[in-house]
Amino acid sequence: MSVPVQHPMYIDGQFVTWRGDAWIDVVNPATEAVISRIPDGQAEDARKAIDAAERAQPEWEALPAIERASWLRKISAGIRERASEISALIVEEGGKIQQLAEVEVAFTADYIDYIAEWARRYEGEIIQSDRPGENILLFKRALGVTTGILPWNFPFFLIARKMAPALLTGNTIVIKPSEFTPNNAIAFAKIVDEIGLPRGVFNLVLGRGETVGQELAGNPKVAMVSMTGSVSAGEKIMATAAKNITKVCLELGGKAPAIVMDDADLELAVKAIVDSRVINSGQVCNCAERVYVQKGIYDQFVNRLGEAMQAVQFGNPAERNDIAMGPLINAAALERVEQKVARAVEEGARVALGGKAVEGKGYYYPPTLLLDVRQEMSIMHEETFGPVLPVVAFDTLEDAISMANDSDYGLTSSIYTQI
């Protein structure tokens, strides 16, 4: 039996072989096979990366912005050259369908190019002073060392989302990918290494949130930490960063409402809502998680919705191109979705479609439709992060807006009407 590839970290411009004994298995969620191993990195590893970023930052900031932008364009070119390889990694480790993985990789390269264009656009200001013959010049300086803590649902794009603006504006960065989807980040680091980006400007540390992530948020040398993930993880990051009054940028969970009015184009509404819910197997924070349907079209709408969800094909994305979704990311995610649906049923909801995990290998959960749902049920307030749609009927638009706003989450909402 072959040993899974063991990945190194990327610190101070070189790949660093892990000397520790503890490793984390990276599992293909479609098959449950171990596909690679990464170091169970510790705070010391994060500190080494932060120190490297600190050493590199002054010289990096001293470069003209247009030169920093040219490095970003080299990275985006490298991504395009390796697009097929990277998208295959995302499919394998994340369970994402091939088409969506390809879009993620292409969009990542485009986003980096977009940020590079800002080299000519971010500017200071000249302000008239209160004293005659005097003006005040304001110019922008880099923060210093920044860190990025990534999720697993759009792992490759989020590297660029954290890195590109930081590097363009003269900062250096340390990235920690999710331990569930690190392989694509290794590919990113290889591109950085091949183009010869100055040492220490980009660093990649592997490990868990409670060790590496906490150091990236709590180290006093870090000027800003950017994190995308769950609300609970965001709370921990904010609490840790607060000890040094470190700047924090968080993108957390969502519970996006979709409102369907009596006069809505039902074909459009059904397609948009189903697509929104099954994309990436429902593991997208800003896609529809709850549906409010006006009573005049409720029966017609839920019938069409059920038919559309029933038609959704799912399976192993490495083997099939005719599917709309793959598995959930891991066993814990599957269990959470099962528990949320079970609790909804206990509270009075009815499973009209799906509702049970698929037997066999892989963390598959089918498209699930919940009816007889009431606003006070937990399924209408807690993020599900799976292919589950609860539907509530309403009388007036005011009622729908009131229920849509009855949430602790922000992010997105949608309404379907001809008004």
Helix-strand category: alpha/beta
Order of helices and strands: EEEEEHHHHEEEHEHEHEHEEHEHHEEEHE
> Separation of termini?
63 Å
Number of helices: 12
CATH-derived architecture of the largest domain: 3-Layer(aba) Sandwich
Strand order of the largest sheet: 15-16-17-14-13-18
How confident is the prediction overall: mean pLDDT? 97
Which fold does the CATH topology of the largest domain refer to?
Answer: Aldehyde Dehydrogenase, Chain A, domain 1
- Count of beta strands: 18
Which strand-content bin applies to the residues? Answer: 15-25%
Give the number of domains.
Answer: 2
What does the largest sheet look like?
A: 6 strands, mixed
Radius of gyration: 23 Å
Task: Describe the protein.
Belongs to the aldehyde dehydrogenase family. This is Aldehyde dehydrogenase A. It is a single chain. The protein is of the alpha/beta class and 419 residues long. It has two domains: 247 residues, Aldehyde Dehydrogenase, Chain A, domain 1, CATH 3.40.605.10; 161 residues, Aldehyde Dehydrogenase, Chain A, domain 2 (3-Layer(aba) Sandwich). Helices cover 40% and strands 20% of the residues. It is built from twelve helices and 18 strands. It has a six-stranded mixed sheet, sandwiched between helices. The chain has a five-stranded parallel sheet with strand order 10-9-8-11-12, with helices on both faces. The termini are far apart. The model has no long low-confidence stretch (mean pLDDT 97).
